[in-house]
Amino acid sequence: MGDQDLSTELAGQGYQLTGRHSAVKLCYWTRQSLVEGRDCYKGRFYGIESHRCVQMSPAIDSCNLHCRFCWRSQGWENDEMMTEYDDPEALLDRSIDAQLRMLSGFKGDPAVTLERWEAAQSPRHIAISLTGEPTLYPKMNRFLELCHARGITTFLVTNGTNPDGLRALDPLPTQLYISVTAPNEEVFRRLTLPTDPHAWSRLRESLEILRHLRTRRVVRHTLVRGWNLGWVEQYAELDGLARPDFIEPKGYVYMGRSRQRLGRDHVPEHSEISGFAHQLAGRTGYEVLDESRESKVLLLGHQDVERYLPGRAPLRVGG
C-alpha cells in the first residue's frame, strides 16, 4: 500500500496523522468519560482520567506481528521504520493539538460538563499503544523525557519482540506493558503470525528484562476462546520470567478489523476470564485485586506493590 493509500485508509478510520509515521486517535473511553463520566478499566485500576488521555503511536506502519485479534488494519506494515524520523518535540505538540481538535466538538454537547471538557484540554496521560510497535521509534527516550517534563504520565505497550528497544529505554515510561498473547511458541506462531522467526525467543528475553526495570510493569494476556485461552501453567511460567507488578488477563473484544479474521464465538465470557485469572493467581502467588466485568479484565498483583513507586502516576485499586 502506498503512502497516499495508507493515509486515506487511516483517516477513514478516524486517525489524525501527526508525522511521517505517527498518529493519534480519539479513544472510545475518552468519549465515554466526557459524555457519560465513565472511565476505562485503567482508571479503575491505575487512576487514569480517560478524558485527559491521548492515545497515539509513533510507529503506525511498523510491526512484525499480524495478530488475528488486532482491531487495526493490517497488510501494510514494515518490520523496520523508515530512516527519517519524526522529531519528538514536534510529535508531542502535534499529538496534543490533534487531540484537542478532536475534542473541540464536545464543548457544545449538553451531556458534557464544562468543567470536564476544560480539564480535557490539559492532557495528563499518553497511551503509546495505538498501532504498530512503538519501541521501534528510535527517539522514544526523548519523547518520554518531554512528556514527563510536562507532567504527563506515559503508558507504553509493546509486543515484547524488541528486547534491545526495552534495554535502551531511558527514562522508563510511567507504566510499561508487555503483551503476552500465547502460552507457547506454537500458539504464538499461529495466532500472531510473526514475520521474525526468532520473535518468540525475543519475547522471552524481553520478559527477563522486564523483571529488572524500576517502573510500574504489567503483563497483559489477551485471551481468545479457541486460540489461546487455557494453558495456565505455561502462562504462569512466562509470568514468572517477568515477575511484573501486575498481570491483566483480558478477554478478546470482537471489534474493528479483527472481525474479518475471527468470529463472535471466539469472544470469551467474563466468567471464563475470571476462571482463568483465579487459576493463574493460584499458580503465580498473585492475588486477584480487582476486575472490570464490562471490559472482561481482572487485575492480579500484590497488595504492597506501591512500596517502591513514589512519585509515579496515581494508583487506585478498586472503586
Description:
- With 319 residues, the chain is an alpha/beta fold.
- It is 34% helix and 16% strand.
- It has one domain (3-308): Aldolase class I (TIM Barrel, Alpha-Beta Barrel), CATH 3.20.20.70.
- It has helices at residues 3-12, 28-35, 41-46, 88-103, 114-120, 140-149, 163-167, 185-192, 199-210, 232-242, 270-284, and strands spanning 15-17, 23-25, 53-57, 125-128, 153-158, 175-179, 216-223, 246-251, 287-292, 297-301.
- It has a ten-stranded mixed β-sheet with strand order 1-2-3-4-5-6-7-8-10-9.
- Strand 7, helix 10 (232-242) and strand 8 form a beta-alpha-beta unit.
- Helix 9 packs across helix 10.
- It is globular.
Quick structural overview:
This protein has 319 residues and is of the alpha/beta class.
**Tell me, what is the CATH class?**
Alpha Beta
Mean pLDDT: 88
SSE sequence, one letter per element: HEEHHEHHEHEHEHHEHEHEE
The main pleated sheet reads as:
10 strands, mixed
- Portion in helices: 25-40%
Instruction: Tell the overall outline.
Output: globular
Q: Indicate how many domains the architecture comprises.
A: 1
| CATH fold description | TIM Barrel
Distance between the termini: 46 Å
The count of strands amounts to 10
Any guess at the CATH architecture? Alpha-Beta Barrel
The largest beta-sheet arranges its strands as 1-2-3-4-5-6-7-8-10-9
Task: Determine the CATH superfamily.
Answer: Aldolase class I
Beta-strand content? 15-25%
Runs in which pLDDT lies below 50 for 5 or more consecutive residues are 307-313, 315-319
The secondary structure category is alpha/beta
Q: Compute the gyration radius: what is it?
A: 19 Å
Instruction: Give me the number of helical elements.
Output: 11
